[in-house]
Amino acid sequence: MGSRVLDSEEFIKQFHIPSYILDPDAEVERLPLKPECPVLVFINSRSGGQLGGDLLITYRSLLNEKQVIDLGETAPDTVLHRLFLNLEKLKNNGDEIAPQLEKKLKIIVAGGDGTAGWLLGVVSDLKLSQPPPIATVPLGTGNNLPFAFGWGKKNPGTDRNSVLSFLDKVQKAKEMKIDSWHILMRMRAPKHGSCDPIAPLELPHSLHAFHRVSSTDDLNVEGRDTFRGGFWNYFSMGMDAQVSYAFHSERKLHPEKFKNQLINQSTYAKLGCSQGWFMASLFHPSSRNIAQLCKVKIMKRHGDWQDLHIPHSIRSIVCLNLPSFSGGLNPWGTPNSNKRRDRDLTPPFVDDGLLEIVGFRDAWHGLVLLAPNGHGRRLAQAHRIRFEFHKGAADHTFMRIDGEPWKQPLPVDDETVVVEISHLGQVKMLAAHDCRSKSVLDPSSPIAHDVDERDSDNEDESVGEEWRKFGAADTFKIPDEVDISHLS
């Protein structure tokens, strides 16, 4: 469809949401055309340098201003609560547009991976009978979520034609369900100091998702500190999270240095060097290696816990849900038929209830991902994962959820520190038809290609306030079937 046809009133009206749907106090309108693809647009105006603000202006010039929300001014849970309560009221009053609009509604979120996670959390928390699918505009640095679903990883154009082209793709996109994951951390309350997560200078939105539970929460245990949250793309721990933490801290201190994606990525690489990630064996204490820090246990699908062997050289561990990490790289790859048979490995489907667990020794090891069919150290696939920290192994570590890092203090006199990851449910995404994310239910998904892999699986190891919102609501709870008695 050419830009001349896209830039027409008939095309644009398909995405329009009338004011009375969004605002209970607005007068009901009689529409000549029923919206075919109504979109609610959330934009982080602080993302992408000036791009977020420019995108906000363009979308508001095309659509109803009330359906384009600046996340710097209004939280998404406020908007969605009001919208869906109003839709229910309108449906009960016999409004003809409301039920159709609810059925066809789509969400567009423009920002970094943390912003996208915030919106995914809000939609999950609301427990809607017809949750709207979500399309993500790549406005951040890594843009792993948009890239995984075919929306690209480069910051988009903000002009009228670029936005119209994106709306056209949203209208043609397919829906995909993806797994969501719950993370729970529990430890003995320290005698001195605090073990609350330390965000890089200020809490990013998604870190509202990993926070201390309140004293009235069902998960609260007397004498214990309990934290919980969730993710869709990945959880990582170790040196990669440490570098990410340094990057976010530097960006908060000197925002004027981070005005576009290219500069941000260059700064990220420099910080990787300064943090010793490229020469980890020299600069990184062996006590911070994953095996020295904690014991890892996994549950493959539904069954008994098994110990997972972590090579002593592994300094970073990634639990991956989507085939996009660190700017679009795929750490798991696609195991060939021999690997699938010998090690019970599968391709990385986004809706199979399994996380891919990958290890890295250092940044040079990570560069294998740039080679054709390259991948990290495949450790396992699992339905649930537990990290049991060794007493006194370290006084802190670095963790990261979906691009948002934090420094996690650890009590030095506690042998009971546990982090557990379990499958929670699924959310709906919008995806381009040729996206790299694959569903286990899609018959067109390639199971595997028996090709030579850049394989590191068998290399010599000697080489080289309450968590209020997942994004927004307090209804994102641990699955009922998860037994947490062993954490008490």
From TrEMBL:
Q: Which domain of life is it from?
A: Eukaryota
Domain DAGKc: residue ranges: 34-187
Q: Which Gene3D superfamilies match?
A: 2.60.200.40, Probable inorganic polyphosphate/atp-NAD kinase, domain 1 (3.40.50.10330)
Q: Where are the annotated segments for Disordered?
A: 441-467
Task: State the similarity comment.
Answer: Belongs to the eukaryotic diacylglycerol kinase family.
How does this protein assemble?
Monomer.
- What is this protein for, i.e. what is its function? Phosphorylates the second messenger diacylglycerol (DAG) to generate phosphatidic acid (PA), another important signaling molecule. PA is required for plant development and responses to abiotic stress and pathogen attack.
Task: Quote the protein name from its UniProt record.
Answer: Diacylglycerol kinase
Organism, scientific name: Rehmannia glutinosa
